[in-house]
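Moderator note: this is an archived Q&A kept for reference. The question asked for a predicted structure of one protein chain; the sequence and the answer are reproduced below.
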Amino acid sequence: MTSKVKVWTKQHVNILEDLDQTGRYIAKKEYIEQKMEDHSNLYLAVYEWYVHAASHFVEPPSDVRYPIWVSLSEEESIQNSEGNVVLEIELEEDQLIIVDLLKWGNIVNHLYIPKDLADQKEHTQMLEKYGIDDITAFMTPFYPNIKQKIEQSHERLFDDTSVLGEMKVGTIWEIRKEWITKITR
């Protein structure tokens, strides 16, 4: 039997309607498009990669296509703002996937995730040799081998031997009404 953990997530207030009507909430493409606006295509592609990769650790329900991001402590949770709610959720620990926030930031920004400092130095030297940065290599068709190296490095998101930062965040696949222990409006 697994233990329970508490997590926090800031969501649009409309989530409460979904929870009342269906008893659960899952992230939907239109919600991401509304939140991310012009950048939604970049996020959707990264989220699709994440769901595929993370499903090896916690299997998502069949109707889930995108993750729900959660904070692991109340102090680190995103502050509430107008039109949103912060949900305190208690769920089984085995439903939570925890990742290094800086590594996730590298993935979102199409940056390399190094194994260690020596690997980072080697990667930086290679980029300098070509006179480019990770984003140029990733976004243009001219450096397919470097792009592939960057994409493969993203698998390190789930490798605890490679650490970029101390702050961790989590994802869950759904929010069930019965998991909610507090709603802050």
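Archived answer notes: The chain is about 35% helix and 20% strand.
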